[in-house]
């Protein structure tokens, strides 16, 4: 084989060929070639005054690219629009990840269960409130119901059912009286 940089002929092992190491005779030639290619690209970009965005593949004037001290061209690889889009998507991912982490820490600290335990309980209840069966949506939040005396988790309830039980002080006798009251005929 002939080296792309120094034009010296060399032999390669079969394992190196499988890994794609066939263009250069040594690591030094490979690194030098990459550096020289980057320098040529930077000189051409600065001479022409245009650059191609790596994200959207549009060739634009250098005014459309943020400046960078670490780049050979002096400009980032992505145009302003694409950088905003990429940052927005990364921010959303970070926010979701942080929200999930915070929720998990809250559940562990307060009830001693993780998000995976919560999801399993919810699935076992049919995906909704253990009392009324209301499904979780944008308006209905599902809360963890626990026995305030022992701290043990009983199930997942919608806010209304959880508040109703809380207003009746988790007293079974009061709940029975409320049921009797509701079942009596209206005059």
Structural commentary:
This protein is mostly helical and about 190 residues long. Among the domains are: about 1-50, no CATH class; about 120-185, His-Me finger endonucleases (His-Me finger endonuclease fold, 3-Layer(aba) Sandwich), CATH 3.40.1800.10. Helices cover about 50% and strands about 10% of the residues. It has helices at about 15-20, 25-50, 80-110, 115-125, 160-165, 170-185; strands spanning about 50, 60, 140-145, 155-160. The strands form two sheets. Strands 1-2 form a two-stranded antiparallel ribbon. Strand 3 (about 140-145) and strand 4 (about 155-160) form a beta hairpin. The longest helix is centred in the middle third of the chain and has 32 residues, at about 80-110. The N and C termini lie far apart (about 100 Å).
Summarize this structure briefly.
This protein is mainly alpha-helical and 187 residues long. The chain contains six helices and four strands.
Count of helical regions:
6
Low-confidence stretches: none
Shape category? elongated
At the first level of CATH, the class of the domain at 118-183 is Alpha Beta
Question: What order do the helices and strands follow?
Answer: HHEEHHEEHH
Q: Which radius of gyration do the C-alpha atoms yield? A: 32 Å
- The overall pLDDT average reads 84
Task: Summarize the main sheet.
Answer: 2 strands, antiparallel
What is the share of helical residues? 40-55%
Strand order of the largest sheet: 1-2
As a percent range, the share of strand residues is: 5-15%
Per DSSP E runs of 2 or more residues, the count of β-strands stands at 4
CATH architecture of the domain at 118-183: 3-Layer(aba) Sandwich
Report the CATH topology name of the domain at 118-183: His-Me finger endonuclease fold
Structural class: mainly alpha
CA(first)-CA(last) distance: 101 Å
Would you identify the CATH H-level superfamily of the domain at 118-183? His-Me finger endonucleases
